[in-house]
Amino acid sequence: MRTFDQNYIDGAFVPVTGEALVDIVDPATEAVVGRARLASGEDARRAVEAAMRAQRAFGRTTVAERVAMLERLQAAMLAHADALLEATITEYSGPVARAKWVADYAAQCFGDAARKLSSYAFERTVGGSIVVMEPVGVSGLFAPWNSAAGTMASKLAAAIAAGCATVIKPSELSPWQAHVVSGAIHAAGLPSGVVNVVTGRGADVGAEIGTHPGVAKLSFTGSTPTGKLIARGAVDTMKRISLALTGKSASLLLDDADLETALPLALGAAFMNSGQACVAGTRLLVPRARMPEVVDRLRSAVDALRVGDPRDPATAIGPMVSRAQYERVQHFIRRGLDQGATLVAGGEGRPSGLDRGWFVRPTVFADVRNDMDIAREEIFGPVLSVLPVESEDQAIDVANDSPYGLQAYVFSADVDRARRVAARLQAGTVLINRVAPDLLAPFGGVRQSGVGREFGVAGMEAFLEPKTITPA
Ligand code: NAD
């Protein structure tokens, strides 16, 4: 049984003053494995003030100094990889392969940022002026539970590269992962106050960071409704905002796609992180003539998926993070049935033999129309909707007929053709014949999937602002 009652503020672990105590429940067993005391608005205020004090000197550090800090952060995250793996699996049951990837990724973010920082031109001549890229200032970074360490690391790497002191607010569902990441940050020995971590709820801790006049920039990853709240709260003090939000990504299987290779990828896109991924490709658009074969193959593939212990490397799908998430998935499976979709695999309830833990049955629906709830709303569980389409044009129209536009996937034997399709898709990223992201390229959403871009140079520039100096 672990207890977490300290946050990382002004270079030290200090007791939090909040009164709320929450149980940490292992989603695979429903056992209480820890307890966390959540931070208060007052803790958040102290963290912001520490960042404001640190910003003065940190904003004037040299590129070489910040590269050295990023390299120390990378080494420290690597040294904490095993602890992070354990926390990720225990706290939200990320399947072991995914949890390992996250632990490596959290370290890699800092290395990537150090490399791009080394070659970045902070000063340019434009017309008769000198344009200087300056750090925007103290930044509030918000992370969701489904990608706690990865989001903390990628946002922090970009902010440090740019010269912004930060206050990080991980989800209240991620105190254990937040503690491990804070330990790595402390071990990296950055100046006090440059990075602060306060784990608490959105209503007090989040709102304090989100509206504090000393915070110049907010970088938020989470759901679209919360992103809208944050944006409204930010406007009074004109904070710069980056929002990485909800998705309902389409996978377009073109009529020339090789099903043997494309379908496992499409299924991987749908069910990654047990379906609890913003970029999950949960709408599979299939030429009508190929539907029977696709449905047969999907049924066999899903029936063969191993659901269970997230620590077992053979497990493809672990439990949902919480009872609430389990209920949400059940609700959408019922909606799919009520609205007339055809159940191909899975269905309501738990998989047989798994009576404890928030396990759901990986589910595939066919004959889904794009106006059904299961095609429009983010379910955040392993539920795939297969929609028949009559033509490539219709596939593009259906893919684009969504309030969201985070990512899309195109599967085709002809890469040039897939690129032509990609050009017409309204999504921040289009992956062709792959599901692995390119971590050096810009990432973010169009429409209600967000504002702004993360990763790579674009991610760092989200924490910079140009100043124009024009001599006579
Ligand atoms: P959420 O919106 O409930 O919470 C995200 C974060 O915001 C948490 O830290 C939460 O405590 C905080 N928060 C809540 N209310 C707040 C407020 N009023 N002020 C400030 N902060 C507040 O999302 P979640 O359930 O943690 O995460 C799942 C969602 O995140 C899904 O919709 C998923 O698609 C999305 N997501 C998006 C991306 C992306 O890159 N686009 C990545 C991962 C997750």
Question: How would you describe this structure to a colleague?
Answer:
Helix content is 40%, strand content 22%. It has 472 residues and is an alpha/beta fold. The protein folds into two domains: 265 residues, Aldehyde Dehydrogenase, Chain A, domain 1 (3-Layer(aba) Sandwich), CATH 3.40.605; 189 residues, Aldehyde Dehydrogenase, Chain A, domain 2, CATH 3.40.309. Helix 3 crosses helix 4 and helix 9 packs across helix 10. The protein is globular and about 65 Å long. The termini are far apart. The model has no long low-confidence stretch (mean pLDDT 97). The site of nicotinamide-adenine-dinucleotide has 31 residues, from helix 7 and helix 8.
Summary tags:
single chain; 472 residues; alpha/beta; Aldehyde Dehydrogenase, Chain A, domain 1; Aldehyde Dehydrogenase, Chain A, domain 2; 2 domains; seven-stranded mixed β-sheet; six-stranded mixed β-sheet; 15 helices; globular; binds nicotinamide-adenine-dinucleotide
Layout of secondary structure:
Elements: E1 2-4, E2 6-9, E3 12-15, E4 21-25, E5 32-37, H1 41-58, H2 63-79, H3 81-92, H4 96-118, E6 123-126, E7 129-135, E8 139-142, H5 148-162, E9 166-169, H6 175-187, E10 195-197, H7 202-211, E11 217-221, H8 224-234, E12 240-244, E13 250-253, H9 259-271, E14 283-287, H10 291-303, H11 323-338, E15 342-347, E16 361-366, H12 373-376, E17 383-389, H13 392-400, E18 404-405, E19 407-411, H14 415-424, E20 429-432, E21 446-447, E22 450-451, H15 456-461, E23 464-469
Parallel strand pairs: 1-5, 8-9, 8-11, 9-10, 11-12, 13-14, 13-19, 14-17, 16-17, 19-20
Antiparallel strand pairs: 2-3, 4-5, 6-7, 7-23, 12-22, 15-16, 18-21
Residues 142-147, 169, 171-172, 201-203, 206-207, 210, 221-223, 226, 229-230, 244-247, 278, 378, 380, 406, 445, 450 line the site of nicotinamide-adenine-dinucleotide.
